[in-house]
Amino acid sequence: MNDLLQVRVTGILIENEQILLVKQQVSNSRAWSLPGGRVEQGETLEDSIVRELLEETGLHTRVVRLLYLCDVPQANPSLIHISFLMERMEGELTLPTNEFDKNPITDVRMVPFEQLGELGFSDTFVHILRHDFPESGTYKGLKSNIGL
């Protein structure tokens, strides 16, 4: 019964009107996503997102604040999606080894906000970024409510 629910964390790192993204096939309409992944057994949410950003981007980061808690009930198993605002502590962007990944990351970069629409991100998500995450720290219902 360990497939009743999964927890996924994503990190949003913003510097100079640019957001950190990883290129990885997310869906048929989008190949770029926020870095993150599943919380592993015994990990805190903070440890998980810091680990995921280091593994996927080469950056040492810290959690600044909780942004949003969302549901993805259509996932199998159902998914809770938690987004955190992150800050870079040190490191340079590097590609992960992808040695154990079935869906490898092929690029990592800081992307200007104005290019997000071209990469398949919704106007809702761009609006949230530009307005400093209104209602951050809240439960937002479906993940689509934050434009993801």
Automatic annotation (TrEMBL):
SUPFAM superfamilies: Nudix. Residues 5-135 form the Nudix hydrolase domain. Its cofactor is Mg(2+). It holds the Pfam family NUDIX. PROSITE patterns: NUDIX. It comes from the Bacteria. Keywords: Hydrolase. PANTHER family: 8-OXO-DGTP DIPHOSPHATASE-RELATED, GDP-MANNOSE MANNOSYL HYDROLASE. This is NUDIX domain-containing protein. It comes from Paenibacillus foliorum.
